[in-house]
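ESCALATION

Customer reports they have been waiting on this structure for their group meeting. Please prioritize. Original submission:
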Amino acid sequence: MNQALEPTIRVHVDPTNPGQFFACCGLLEIADRIWGGAEGWFEGEGFALRSCIADSLADAKDMRLTNVIPKLCFESLDPGDEYSPPLALRASIEIRLDWWKDDQAGGSRLKTWAGQQKVINIAEGMKREAEAMLSRPSWEWLQHRDDSSELPFNFDSDLGGMGSDRDLGFSMDPLKMKATTRPMVELMAFIGLQRFRPAKLENENRYRFSTWSDPLVPEIASIAACGMLEGPRLQTYEFRLLYRTKYLKSFLPANPIGGDQ
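Update from on-call: job pushed to the front of the queue and completed.
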């Protein structure tokens, strides 16, 4: 690798898992805010993040992702909406999260939780669980599973591929049963979907996203992610949503479409 592109952080990613792809996008978004500029790109089995500022500044203790992520907190921006209000993500950064309210750009179609589930509770639960991942090498952040009593978003397609409540014969949620989750995938995908969206095939339950191999800042990477950027080498993947009920959904595994474009 060119020394100029030596990453600050690398995580292991399976791009056929849409949740892991959007989690990489969320990590890029957070890193960009914390470091005052960041680039991300896919290489081999990994996703690389590099600070756009001097390495000495990016490595400063108060700018490390492992120090900032535990300080993240969610706040409802609409007290009148008990279940799915817009949220503010705050710490040393501030991000408005409301993609599930976006009918125009299709964010609302990706809302996976049911109407009586509180989005802030799911986000806070995954954030608490994700903190335990930070003691591990960054390469393991998106791969490590843990038993959790917290409700996931079901962005991790390994959860979606396990079958619906109907397949199990009962619903796990009210029984408070533990599920094996990847909390960093769930949390970071939830953040990543604010800027990064898949392209929907018209009149079909099919969505496409693309990985990119050149270092890109979030503003450009989000265009590459939905396959609308010419230039960088792109690999496109297609996935579907599993409709457990009319409103409760999961991401299903993705299949690669063609080769580099």
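Sent to customer with the following note: Confidence is low (pLDDT under 50) at residues 163-172.
Escalation resolved.
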